[in-house]
Structure formats: C-alpha cells, structure tokens
C-alpha cells in the first residue's frame, strides 16, 4: 500500500502505517473485486464520538447538529480505502480475518438485526471468489451489480465530497465544484483492467453505452512483457522519464519534418504508435524501458480519450468523468486524456478526474448497504460547507491527506 | 514481393517473376510513399496491341470498339502493383533506374509534351524523399495530396473494377457490386502505419473526420518488439496459429466463467487485451509468439473497427470501406473488423474490403495524371460487362490472378 502524491495531486490511497493506528470500530466493509485489483472501502468509527452507543436515542452528534431522525444513533468516523492485487487475494482474506476486523467487525457487529456474515461485493470477482470467502472467512458476498456500483460511487462523490472532482491541464489541477442541479447527464469512463463507458442520466438512471478492452490491464500487461517491470506503479513511474518520440512514428517522421497542415496534423502529432520500431534493426533490448512505457501510456490514454469523446458526442454529453485505477493521479495520463478530449471535441467537452477514482465500484457497493433495509446512511451536513442536494447519502466533512473521508452514519435499523 | 493468397482471397500483390516477364512499354508510374511502405502503380502496355503508335489517330482499339475521342491513340495494357519497404527505399530507386524502366519509360517516353522527369507521388515520403529522387534519378516528385489520392483511388476501384469490393464474415468472402448511383456517402478507413478515416460524399467531396495512431505500424512495431518477427507478413502468418485467450483477460476470467449478461457481455468477450499477462509470474519468453501476435492483431483490428463504427454513426454512414496495407487479405483481421462493425452497429453497418486495398493512394496519384492536362485517361468499357458510370476513368476489363488490372488508356496530349 502506498501513498500516491504525484505532481501535487494527493490521491486516495490508504497508508499502511495509518491502518495500524486505527483503534475505532470497523464496520460496513465493501469490496470491488476486479480483474487486477481488489478495492476495499470500510467505515471506522472515531473512538471519541458520541451518539454511537447501541440503542442510544440522542439526537445530537458531537458537532451539536440536530439530527432529523432522532430515534437513531449517529456514528462519526471515516471511510477508509484499501487495495490488494487480485492475484494476491489471500492477503485480502488474511487482512479481513485479522484481529482488527475480527474483534471490531462492524456490520459484523453488536446489532442483532445485522448479519455479520454478509458483506457487499461487486466486480467479477464477487462471483469468481464467492466460494473462497465463504470457505476461508465464512462470509457470504452479497453481489451488487458492477455498473450500479460505479454510478452510485461517482454520484456519492460528486454530491457529497468537496474538492473531489478536478480538471488537469498543462501540469495544473483545478478543483471543480459541480452544481448539484446540473450534475446530469455525464459520461462515466471507468478505466479498470478494461474500460466501461456509462451514460448517467440520474441517480439510478444510466446505461452502459460502450467500452474498450484496451485499458489498464493492457497497459500493465503489455508493459510487463515489454519492460519486465514488477508492478503497475513501477511502470507508471518509469514512463514519467521516458520519451515517446523514440518509438512512436510522428507526422514529421513521415513528412520529413513538415506538418500535414491540410488536415491539421502538426509534425509532432503521433502518426503511428510504436511505428518507429518498424524501421531499423533495433530489438526490444535496444530501447530504453522508459521510452517504451511512455509510448504505451500515451497510446492507451489517447485511445481511451478518443473513444470516450466519440461516445460523449453521440449523446451530446459535455462532461466526461474518468475514473478507475488506471489513472492513479498520474500527471501524464491525465494530461494525455485531457488533451485528447480537448483536441477531438475542439474544446467543447471537458475531462474531469476524481480523487477517489479507483474506488468508485467499492464505494457504490458500500452505498448499497442503505438500499436493502439493513442500514440507512443519512445525510449529515458539515456546518461550514453544506452540500446542496445530498439525497440521503453519507455526509462528507473533509477529505484528509491519506484519502480517507470523514463522515457520519445514521443507522435506521439499529435496535432501539 | 509475394503473392498473398490467403483463405481463398486473392490479393493484389505483384509477383517478382511476373515482373521479369514484362516486355511491354512501362509508363505513368505513380508512388505512394508511406511511413512503412512504398506502393507503386504503373501501366505496362501490351506488346501486341494496336492503336498505340505515336501520332496514330486510329479510332479503334483491338476489341474493335469505337472510341469517342478518335483523334487520340488508345493504349492497351495492364496496371501493375508493386511494394517496397520504406526503409529500403534504395531498392525502389534501383528498380526505377533499372533497364526495365529506363529503356521503356512511359510518361518518360517518346512524347515531346511529356516530361519524363516528373512522376506523381503521394504520402509523406513524397516530401521527405523528394531530394533523394531528384539526386539519384533526376526525377521530380509531383506531390499529390494524400487524402485526395486515397479517395480518388477508392472511387476508381469501386466504379471501375468488377469484383473489387467484398464482405468477409465467418470465413467467407462475398463480392459486392455497388450500384454507382448509390455509392456515396461512405466512410473510408485507410489503415497504413496510422489510420485515417474519411467521409466521402462525392467524387471530389470528402473530409478527413478522424483517425487513430493505433494502426499497422503499431501492429508491426509492437509485434516486432514482442516476437522478434522479421517482417509484417511473418507476424501475420504467426498470428494465424495463435490463441488470444492465453494472454487476453476474458469476461469469464473475471466473472469465474459466467457471462456478464446484464450488459450483454459473454464470458468469451475480451475484457482486457493483454490483461492476463498481469497475473502470474510469466515473462515474455514464457508466452508463445503466436499467441502474442494473435492478441495484438485482435486488439488493433477490434479497436479500429470500433472507432470506425463510432465515426460512421456520427455521420449516419452505413457503409464502411477498409483499405490500406494493414489488412492484406488476412482472414482473421477482416473477420475481427467485420465482427466488430457488426457488433457495435447491431448489424446496421457493414464492413467492406477491397482487393487492391494497399494501393489506394498510389492509384489515386496515378489517376491524377489526367487532372493536370498532361494525359487524359479515358473510359473504355468492356463489352461484356459495362460499368454504369465511369466518369472519365480508366476502363477495367478484368482483374487477373496476380492483381494487375487490364485497362486501356487514351492520351489526349499525345502529339498528333
């Protein structure tokens, strides 16, 4: 587990040391088990918060705000984010069976109405690994649809988290506060191992309109074969110091340094990704892995941006939100995507990124706890910066440095 | 130079042995110098045809057809097609300076009005290598715009050549005769090193609406790095016996063998190209080059099909014509493109292929001889199968086995 602080953008990664400091009660774990990564979201109650006792009918939390649903307790704490590699799923299982989760298990908790053996899970792995969780932990994975989860996760973040969305261009990120009344429609582009493109028209109104198999798994998979990098992060790091012009065939390489001005292609535009590897007698070992990684990142980012734009155009969507673990706050990725969207749309469409981009599905699965009558997550505004239209969602008061989200819960099914 | 006869589709490649047999007069050479390949088209007069003498005013050709422009001679012969690798441009230069071309140079010929030192050329290399041709051969390349050439080449083929266009699906190719009155609009997708997508609305009415850098150069470049193949054709050959499921992450790999039926993805759909290379400890050497080549071909073909479809959709085009040297009549490439277009368009759009797919630009440059007043190429119908609307183009009577096209010329500037 790593903190990602790249190019001034603090990303939502959970720090291992931070984890050890957790002393509060852990509850409501949700998983998104993808092809490459397992993403986990869980709530950890602050030790010192009031209104959290079983059966407590207090209508005030520590901030002294009156709670509309006074018969239910308010839990104050943080949402935490954690990831594991899917191929190392045993680490995830071990973590969940660890003392931390066992003794303080939350929705595996003190409430009799609450079945501690069921947790929400989404992603293909919720199907694939259902037996493993049952066998090793005695836990049943309650499967939540992948697209439902992604959309619920993004909507939660856009509505509830101040400073969540931002644009990235020319090395600068700019936070964007989206007007809640002007949120829909948008195109969600979730870049995991593969890419899903979802047109979102409302809270629960959406359609998967497109996708591509050229995604994060392609970058990592091809990158691993080409560079022998041991991890996705290492490959990203490597690409940072590379020069794609060594391997990409540019318009200028074909036109002898001149632009192809008639169709608006400058001499530095990429005519053919990896096209320069064709000429000469160079083999893989003759190229610097940095340059290979850079060309690969640029090819894939650019391609996703283009397909996203074409789909946004199809449905007249001006706002394209990019999520998924591929991006990881990496400047060059975001820059290429932003430039791609800007180029193809002639400035009409805008690429937006999210601080918790990798946890959309897991957050959505987490949100689904409120849907099945087991638990209700109630809006609770921060007095200083009240979100405008939080429809029955968790409140987010702050986004701290390691990416965890401060929030409060109200549990409707808490026994009284 | 090779004959490509794959899967029952005879492709327009020029055979070296065939070249040696040429005894007729060579004239009107045109070049398309791309990032990876140089494509050449030239006319070679039959030895035994009449009406070809300098100053001959005969109004009849060998078939006895009356020619409307009786003051001009009719030359009967064949259009021939030849390719060289751009990195081996000296082979092309040597070929052009060879006895064959020197002694029989055509538009470098007996006609005083005809400047033998100027030949039509398109593609970026017409700029890049202009000095080289001047220096080595004393030839000036008369540059013809790349997009103009591509469109002129396709229109010539679609209007004039019987059995040129075909669909390919499930291992079967089906020739399509397009009604000349229903030719436009169509989307031309030319897959060279990079990919250009051109909306064609009429003979000279078109617009380059999109493109992608993930093209033939990407396949060959990445493929060379990954498999150590020595040529594009070798890589294609290799892919034929590969299995992409070894490296691609399928929906079933993520969902444990089940479909993601809610959004219509079957378990065998590719979720992430090269995504399986992420898991396990396999390195490049542990994969069969065949499987790598297959995954690569599928990724790129699929991606081009998708972007092409999205652009066709944008402009309401039902017919998508794929050309360029990437395809080479390769069954799996055409099948993936066809299936991709069919899948994304829900059967609404159709992928069409061309027998002379690799020579569109060169043919278009060749056609441009008629535009500059130097030479006029006059329609001359085959009696048995008259094309309906040949607007001042060469006549094509047949397409022989090695891909050359039988035709007749009429030269308006032939001195009388």
Describe what you observe in this structure.
Two copies of one chain form a homodimer. Helices cover 29% and strands 23% of the residues of chain A. Chain A contains twelve helices and 18 strands. The first copy, chain A, has helices at residues 16-21, 89-96, 99-104, 125-128, 130-137, 146-160, 216-227, 232-240, 251-254, 289-314, 331-345, 360-367; strands at 5-6, 9-10, 26-33, 37-45, 74-85, 118-122, 140-143, 165-169, 172-176, 186-191, 195-200, 206-212, 249-250, 270-272, 319-323, 350-354, 398-399, 405-410. In chain A, strand 3 and strand 4 (37-45) form a beta hairpin. In chain A, helix 7 packs antiparallel against helix 10 (289-314) and helix 8 crosses helix 10. The longest helix of chain A has 26 residues, at 289-314. At the A-B interface, helix 4, strand 12, helix 7, helix 9 and strand 14 of A face helix 4, strand 12, helix 7, helix 9 and strand 14 of B.
Number of strands of chain A: 18
Q: What topology, given as strand order, has the largest sheet of chain A?
A: 7-6-3-4-5-18-17
Apparent shape of chain A: globular
Largest protein-protein interface: A-B, 71 and 71 residues
Radius of gyration of chain A: 23 Å
* Helix/strand class of chain A: alpha+beta
Give the SSE order of chain A as H and E letters: EEHEEEHHEHHEHEEEEEHHEHEHEHEHEE
Question: Which percent band covers the strand fraction of chain A?
Answer: 15-25%
Number of domains of chain A: 3
CATH topology of the largest domain in chain A: Nucleotidyltransferase, domain 5
Question: How is the biggest beta sheet of chain A arranged?
Answer: 7 strands, mixed
Shape-level CATH architecture of the largest domain in chain A: 2-Layer Sandwich
Number of helices of chain A: 12
CATH homologous superfamily descriptor of the largest domain in chain A? ATPase, nucleotide binding domain
Question: Roughly how many Å apart are the termini of chain A?
Answer: 39 Å
Give the fraction of residues assigned to helices of chain A.
Answer: 25-40%
